[in-house]
Design brief:
The protein is an all-alpha fold. It has a domain at 3-264. Helix content is 83%, strand content 0%. The chain is built from nine helices and no strands. Helix 1 packs across helix 3 and helix 4 (45-71) runs antiparallel to helix 6. The chain is rod-shaped.
Length: 469
């Protein structure tokens, strides 16, 4: 079956099923008769094909129109910030002629009833910043919060603006579709050979142009007026927000400048305190090394003291030994004198005795032993004397070294005490200044406020972007 035979076999009722009943009432008679006439008459092939193409376009346009009506976009549903004054779906039900007009009228009435209430959130009021850090931060924070509330109020109205814009576009699209349908009905009416059929095909065009289009155009114009009012109020509010944002940014910049100046002052002060702490650490190391040197001097002094005491003890021992040895020598000399004077039984000394060789030998041996003892003691006394008489020089050297070490130790000890006292005073002063720096840092809280200040600036930029300002 070719395209022409298919279209001529479709009933008028099935072809127009689902269209508004006003259209089918006028078109069903003409379309059915025209299809029957086209099937019976020997119309020129080209004219018949064009006629069927027009019918197909009418069919497609009616599908689109029916789809738009079935979408239910007629319900004027806007956010709470825009009061429509009417119910959300003023005319429920199907899409017949009266319903179509009623819905268009309901849209117009709802658009007329739209109220754009004044903005409730107050704009920030710029005032001189407080000299107190926390006061300035709280002041700017409160202003940014007020600015946020005002921006959120404007952002919420963007939803209403979007819905009104969408509805205006849908009404305009519906009006264009109906205009195209009317034009096509007009073209078809000029193609039919019968006057009655021509009137039947022209009636939908007249009905659309005189009955439907004015009502939809009126509704579209009313929605456009409401849209213009909303755009105008939002544009005015955007201007107010831009002015408020400029003042608020100046306040944030002023606070940021103060915060940066305070942060720089505290940073420089902390760097100075850190440098002094480093110098104190170096001084502490130097004093610690001086104490090590002082301990080494004490060890040297103790060692010299030990050497001097040892030499003095050695001198005393040598003196005692030499005295003892001199006593031994004297005893041996007395023994020799006694032996030399001792006589044999005949009354002769060992030198003159000739009768008693044993006596002479014994005396000689005893005198030799005493003489040997005296020689040994004399040599020992000579050796000890040399050592004894060298000890004073050694003692003078050691005592001189001891005196030098003692003086060095006393000077270093006094220097360590003086430097330690100064170090303790400097350390206590630095601790006081560090405590004061911490107190200043906590009082100003420049770093915390700087983070909050930057967050407020970023928050404002995002709000202005979302508000379209």
């Amino acid at each position: 079956m070719n395209r022409r035979s298919f279209l001529t076999s479709v009933s008028a009722h099935s072809l127009l099923a689902g269209y508004p009943r006003g259209f089918t009432a006028f078109a069903e008679f003409a379309l059915g008769g025209m299809l029957s006439g086209a099937a019976a008459a020997e119309a020129p092939p080209n004219r018949t094909i064009k006629f069927l193409q027009l019918l197909e376009r009418i069919h497609d346009l009616f599908d689109k129109t029916s789809d738009m009506i079935d979408w239910g976009f007629w319900a004027l549903e806007l956010p709470y910030i825009v009061n429509t004054g009417v119910a959300a779906s003023p005319v429920p039900g199907g899409a017949d002629d009266d319903d179509l007009i009623a819905r268009a009228e309901a849209i117009r009435a709802a658009s007329n009833a739209i109220e754009i209430p004044p903005y409730e959130s107050p704009l920030p009021v710029m005032q001189p910043l407080s000299a107190d850090w926390d006061g300035a931060r709280n002041q700017n924070s409160a202003q940014v919060q007020a600015f946020t509330d005002a921006c959120v109020e404007l952002i919420e109205r963007k939803e209403a603006l979007s819905l009104l814009t969408t509805q205006l576009a849908q009404l305009s699209q519906l009006l264009r579709l109906l205009s195209d349908v009317a034009r096509l009905f007009g073209e078809v009416s000029t193609m039919v050979p019968n006057y009655e059929w021509a009137k039947a095909w022209a009636f939908p065009q007249i009905s659309i142009e005189l009955y439907y289009a004015p009502v939809i155009s009126s509704a579209s114009a009313t929605v456009g007026l409401r849209l213009d009012d909303l755009n105008r109020s939002m544009g005015q509010r955007r201007g107010e927000l831009r002015s408020a944002a400029a003042g608020l940014r100046n306040a944030l910049a002023e606070e940021a400048f103060k915060i940066q100046a305070e942060a720089d002052r505290l940073r420089l002060l902390k760097e100075e305190l850190d440098q002094r702490q480093t110098e104190l650490d170096a001084e502490d190391d130097r004093i610690r090394r001086m104490r090590v040197d002082l301990d080494a001097l004490d060890l040297d002094i103790n060692e010299l003291d030990g050497q001097i005491v040892s030499l003095q003890e050695r001198k005393a021992r040598l003196e005692s030994d030499m005295s003892s040895w001199n006593g031994t020598i004297r005893e041996q000399e007395r023994e020799i004198a006694r032996l030399s004077a001792e006589k044999c039984p005949l009354g002769a000394t060992y030198r003159t005795c000739t009768q008693h060789p044993g006596f002479v030998s014994d005396i000689r041996n005893r005198i030799g032993a005493a003489t040997e003892t005296i020689g040994n003691r004399q040599r020992a006394i000579a050796d000890a004397g040399r050592e004894f008489w060298g000890i004073p020089d050694r003692l003078r050297v050691l005592q001189s070294q001891l005196a030098a070490k003692t003086n060095q130790r006393d000077e270093l000890s006094a220097l360590v005490d003086m430097d330690s006292a100064r170090f303790a005073a400097d350390r206590d002063q630095l601790n006081l200044e560090l405590h004061d720096w911490l107190k200043q840092s906590w009082t100003s809280r420049a770093l915390v406020h700087d983070r909050a200040n930057k967050d407020d600036s970023s928050r404002m930029d995002e709000l202005m972007r979302r508000a379209g300002a």
